[in-house]
Amino acid sequence: MPAVISVSKLCKSYASGFQALKDIDLDINKGEIFALLGPNGAGKTTLISIICGLVMPTSGRVTAAGYDIVTQYRQARSHIGLVPQELTTDAFESVWDTVSFSRGLFGKPPNPAHIEKVLRSLSLWDKKDNKLMTLSGGMKRRVLIAKALSHEPDILFLDEPTAGVDVELRKDMWELVRSLRSMGVTIILTTHYIEEAEEMADRVGFIRNGRIILVEEKHRLMHQLGQKQLTLQLAQPLAQVPAALHAYELRLSDDGQELVYTYDSSRQDHDIATLLNQLQQAGIRFSDLHTRQSSLEDIFVSLVKDAA
User: Fold this and answer.
1) Tens digit of pLDDT for each residue in 129-188?
2) What is d(CA 16, CA 37) in angstroms, rounded to the nearest whole number?
3) CATH code for position 260
4) Coiled coil where (predicted)?
């Protein structure tokens, strides 16, 4: 699959000496949903700002849709829509006017049919004549997305798109993002809601201290790095794990009522049936059991801890 965004040896340093980005190499494929995850201050917004032409890089090269973001800024930027974190809107403008104006900024001729389509897709059509100052925070965020889509970009950046919105609106936006991807739009999002990336992303990139520490397909990442936990609810509490079971590194809960076995689901050297048989031989009975697969959040926390 061809890369629609290519970042090579990208660095960004400020006059203070702070190095926000360090030798970033990253390719984002056409038509995918790519989630960029990292703690606060990791460099997510700086990276997005450089790709979108809002911040100049110190060194390195970035292309978007085949255009150099520095030397061919206008051509590159015409392919990009950006939804920033901040709810910056012109308070006294109407929804229709502010979205139409954004289209004109990119030199696009008026196209009321496209503006109507965008507003309807974002459930903003009945608000088209409302002043922005009268809208809720969630509606203002939808307006930002409408502005970013006004010039028909094929690359869309969403920087914390659902920050501060309720769960129902967040799920509505997930559906919108999927529909945009189905139309061929490449989506790049940063988010603090790890379940957002787990729900939507095709690939995930982790950034820490200005460096990309891992880029992988989401499902492959969760298969390779994910772990499973088998939790046994004991019929009778245990004082300690029998020595014969130490090889399994079982964890006993403080009240002695649960045994937890953590194992790598991709490896072949774990045998649940053998463990259960040995528990029976040791006279340990259980009343219930359940398994749990590691989530993307678990993997994220583990990676950030390892990179610290």
Assistant:
1) 999 999 987 788 889 889 999 999 999 998 887 766 666 777 777 888 888 888 889 999
2) 26
3) 3.30.70
4) none
